[in-house]
Amino acid sequence: MIRTGLWASVVLGILLLLQTTVLSYFSIAGVKPGVLLIVFVILASQNGGLVSQIVGFILGLALDMVTTAPLGYNAFQYALAGYLFGLGKGKVYYDPFVVPALVGLLATIYSAVAGFALSEVFQLGFKVDSFFQVGLVVQLVVNLVASPIVYLVFNFLKQRFQDPRRGFDG
Amino acid sequence: MSKSSPFRQLLFRFHRGAILVGLLVSSSLLVLFNGTPGVSKPQEIGLAVLSFFQGAVSQTFHWFGQSAESMASFADLKSNFDAVNLRLKKYEGNERELVLLRTENTRLKKQLDFHSSLSYFNVAAEIIGKDPTRVYSSMVINKGYLDGIRLDQAVVANQNGVPGLVGKITKVSLNSAVVQPVLDANLFVSARMENSRNEGLVSGKGSNEDVLLMSFVKKRAATEIAQGDLVVTSGLESLYPAEILIGRVRGVSSKEYETSLNIEVEPIVDFSKLEYLYVLRLPS
Fold this sequence. Notes:
The structure holds two protein chains of two kinds. Chain A is 68% helix and 0% strand. The mean pLDDT of chain A is 82. Chain A is globular and about 45 Å long. In chain A, helix 2 (35-47) packs antiparallel against helix 3 and helix 2 (35-47) crosses helix 6. Chain A is an all-alpha fold. Chain A contains six helices and no strands. Chain B starts with 5 loop residues before the first helix and ends with a strand. The A-B interface holds A 16-18, 20-22, 49-50, 53-54, 57, 60-62, 64-66, 70-73, 75-76, 79-80, 83, 118, 122, 124 and B 15-16, 19-20, 23-24, 26-32, 34-35, 39-40, 42-43, 46-47, 50-51, 53-54, 57-58, 61.
């Protein structure tokens, strides 16, 4: 479990750096594909909730540190997402396109809803428009399209780097 | 006790739920106490650490991006360089051609000036062939009978602004003619010294030597003739008009038993550099 968590943390840490640097240049109608979120939920659904909620919390904290979000905001979201999507472990079987796309779609909706809920609960001052507007539709479409691609790349890398005896997650 | 016992399952669920609750409560507390020194300080440290890696990643990709751009620019530069190089070579070719044309133009202008300055009606002609076996022998010009060229007409040339005798026409076809140069041993030109007015007969030595021989000059004229004196056509009973330059005296010699001098004359015309000739059409 520790090995799984470390592996996931390393992968997501690298993705965090990429998401906040290089991937910032790739945007469609001002919306950037949520590669970090997509990979996180895919990992969560494969690794289970216990590891994923801890990894999500750490990842969220790191994300909070490098963004203007209040510390704990993303940590809450990702920890909860890790738990929720971790419930799918052993129940979700990935095909190349449909399931990754659906997972990406669900993750995007979850992110908007959770963000809005947190904003309302903690009175962070965001308006509803910040979460539910045309941008969300674009984000949904972008992530819907990006998810199978991300899954394909992720799966390819996983097969390349995983230990044949012990598996990628130990 | 098996792993699937209700107690262990309950414990496992509680354990996971407790961790989740702990994480969510921690997150909530962090959000609630956001901005306070206790929260903002770790955030600042975390930001400092993460931003270091962000900077490294960003700079790495920036470097790769710049390298890719540089390579693309280099490829563009190379193609531009090749294109410019090609154009430059073309221009160099043009320039060479221009220089050649200018030179030819200057030369032709000089010839045209000479052509106009001649007091006799003349036909300008270009040498189109030379006897390959004898360097200073016959030359073929591109003008013939149809251009008014006839046998025995005098041929002159202009080199460096100095007009000089070349020879005479010995063969004529419709469009070309053959010139026999004064270097030929069989061609005799009635000549005289320009200063002393002593007369003689100039001919070639029958060899490839660039020298003429003036003979039949009386011995007593030896004191009047000096090296460098000009020799011109006399115009007496000759095919050649008077006062056309033939050459300069190079040396004078005589034998005791002879009554005339042997004068070596250096031709005014450099036969190896001839390009254009003028055939003089004298009034009959």
